[in-house]
Amino acid sequence: MATADSTPAERLHAVQARIAAAAGEAGRNAAAVRLLAVSKTFGDAAVRALADAGQRAFGENYVQEALEKQAALHDLPLEWHFIGPIQSNKTRLIAEHFSWAHSLDRLKIAERLSAQRPAGLPPLQVCIEVNVSGEASKGGVAAADLPALAAAVSTLPGLQLRGLMAIPAPTTEVAVQRAAFRQVREAFDALHARGFPLDTLSMGMSADLEAAILEGATIVRVGTALFGERTKHA
C-alpha cells in the first residue's frame, strides 16, 4: 500500500492495483476502467512526475490553473479532462483546450461548448452530470431530466455524448456507495435502451473507487490517492 512517503510511481501502481482487484471482483477486465488523475491544486511538477510514471489522462476543476499547467507541460502527450462546474464565461477556454468535459448539466452550456469548439479539433467528448444524492449544492441533473438533455446534446455537432458522471454524497458505507452508483448505472442503462450509444460511466474517487467499479464505472477520478492530501483551493 502506498504511503505519504511513496514515490509517484508507487502511488500510481497502488491505485492501478486497486482498480485491477475491484475489476476482478466484478468479473470485469481491468483495462475497461480508465484512471483519470485529478491534479487540481497540484502544480505542473507533480503532474510531470506522474506522467513520467506512465499516467496520461489528467482532470482539472479550475480553468485558469489548468491552462497554466497545460502550457508548462506542452511537451508531454497528455489528455486533459475538465471535471469542475462549467461557467458560461469559461466555455470557450474549455472548448479550445480540453479533450473531455465531464460536468455538463445544462443545454445552454452544451450549446456554447459546441459552437466554440474549434473546427480543427475532434468533437469535445462530454458526459452529463447526474445529481444522484439530491443535494442542492451539487451540480447535475435529475435522472428524470436526462433523456431530454441527452437528446438535445446528441444533436450538437461540436460535441460527442459519451455517458454520465456523478459525485454522490460521501459515505464510508460500501452498501450506500454502491446504491448511489447503481442509480447512475441504471440511468445509463435506461438511456442505452432508448438508443443512445453511450460507453462511459465517470464515477468513483479515491475513497470509493471499488464500489464504483463494482457498479460499472469506466472512468474513476482519483486525486488524493495519487497526489496526497490537497490544501483547500483559494
Word description of this protein:
With 234 residues, this protein is an alpha/beta fold. Helix 3 links the parallel strand 2 (57-60) and strand 3 (79-82). It has 9 helices and 8 strands. The radius of gyration is 17 Å and the shape is globular.
Can you tell me the CATH architecture? Alpha-Beta Barrel
Taken from the alpha-carbon principal axes, the silhouette is: globular
N-to-C span = 31 Å
The H-level CATH homologous superfamily, spelled out, is Alanine racemase
- CATH topology call: TIM Barrel
Spans of at least 5 consecutive residues whose pLDDT stays below 50 are: none
Radius of gyration using CA atoms only: 17 Å
Mean pLDDT: 94
| CATH hierarchy class name | Alpha Beta
List the strand order in the largest sheet.
Answer: 7-6-5-4-3-2-1-8
For the sheet with most strands, the description reads: 8 strands, parallel
In short:
With 234 residues, the protein is α/β, with parallel strands linked by helices. It has 9 helices and 8 strands.
Q: What structural keywords apply?
A:
single chain; about 230 residues; alpha/beta; TIM Barrel; 8 strands; about 40% helix
Topology:
Elements (H helix, E strand, L loop, with lengths): L7 H18 L8 E5 L5 H9 L4 E4 L2 H10 L6 E4 L8 H7 L2 E5 L2 H10 L7 E7 L15 H9 L4 E8 L7 H20 L6 E3 L6 H6 L4 E4 L1 H4 L7
Parallel strand pairs: 1-2, 1-8, 2-3, 3-4, 4-5, 5-6, 6-7
